[in-house]
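Regression test attached.
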Amino acid sequence: MYSVVLSFFRYNGYTTPHWVGLNNYSSLLHSPDFHDAVINTIFYWLVPLPPMLAGAFLLALAVRSRISLLSPVYKPLIFVPQVMAPVAAALVWRVMLSNSGVLNAALGLHVSWLSDPAALKWGVVMLLVWRGLGWYFVVFLAGLAAVPEDLLDAASVDGAGATRRLRHVILPLMRPTILFAVVIDTIASLQLFTEPNLLVGGAGTTAGAPPSAAPVMNQVISNVIGGQFGLAAAAGWIVFVAIGCFSLVQFRLFREATQ
Amino acid sequence: MNARELRLGWMTARGGINALLLAVAGLAIYPYLVMLFGGFKSSAELTTNPGGPPSQPTLANFSALLTGLTGEVMWRSLLNSLVVTIPFTALTVLLCAMAGYAFAKYRFTGRSLIFALLIASMLVPIEVNIPALYLLFSNVGWLDSYQVQIFPGTASVLGMFLARQYMRSIPDEVLDAARVDGAGHWTTFFRIAMPMSAPILGAIAVLTFVYKWSDYLWPAVMVSNPHFQPIMVTLPALSTNASGFIVRYEILLAGCLVVALPLLVLFARFQKTLTSATTVGALRG
């Protein structure tokens, strides 16, 4: 709650705080860097989400079905990227995305993933999908395990093919799990900080992603480091309100889905 | 289409799906291989052979990383990581057990209201409060210290929730029997409730350790003195120095390997705990 109060003041940490009303908010809303940061955060949230969730869901379906030959192997293998610390993951991907890195070499490309902000954003997406996929895969596996086997058998006895079983039995039962995954992904995405910043180099909180690829959390952190606590609190508060709104909408959907 | 063709089509589809699954699993572990191979390559080889196994494996990167001036920073920050992570984990488990026990086994005014507020607070991420917390810890002189890394965040609501769910299944009769035998509240808690909840407390410990070991944002903001910085903050700084940006990718990979190993060992040992925790809401770090 202190951060709400803080967001209405200009305060550098040691002199007397000045009441500035909504100035912190309006200067953020008029700052091009803040605009970019909001757009980038939405990009990092909405672009990896469909491939990651759909991919994880299809993988979980395949592994649960009788088609897959080596099912027990996949869970640890696909989950293991999640075990790598975000810092280490970002650094390994930095090397992989470098000019002479493995991605350019394998695909025969000459993309400057790390110095071209537009390419960098796609690099961040790749990193996020790589690290996140296994997490959602395991969530969906658990969700699928809760779908009663006899319900599926009953549906096949009634003549429902694989597609109809998926649409009319599995998907309705999985809706709460899918929405849970979306909520968690939203909360995590809006707080994104480590991945984009450590992919580019620099260290600590001083360097990192250029403004045209930086997430909103950078506005919070750079203002803390720069001693602009009022601005930082305002930026943090905007992130929080965004998380709150999205969560509320999603929880409403969640409740409808479970009823 | 006769039966044979149908069967052939089914087998092709099945083969395709299995190949796809294997490909995804391969892509998932490939960056680990890049890290493992790269840590043993020379700078020249990493440029010409970025993805394959090293043709002339060398330990030079590890000696560059772990000896000399860089070595001093690395060992210091590895030690810092342990000094911070172990008490943080122990404290988290203890607080989660105590709060979980209170919510599970005691009736007090406002119990459900406090519980609901705590659960709601999970939606407010600590990151959003960083400006206020930075000022708070700056005022009490905790910036650049171990305590700012050890104490904040130990009162984990998720851990408390997990402990509570588990402890609710401890029969009241067992606790009553202990009290009849003359055990006080604390004795009952430490001698009966905690040992009986060992599985969930162990799971909380593993999850907390992994989360804290990997944490970057909190120490990056709160600790600027290298003396107290954990490995996650010093490792990215390896590629920069006073004279500008010098990126020694092969050393960076060797460093990643060093910090990834403890977590891989934990994962190998506690695979089920770590994967099943995702389903209850999980600490995503």
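Expected vs. actual: identical. Chain A has a mean pLDDT of 85.
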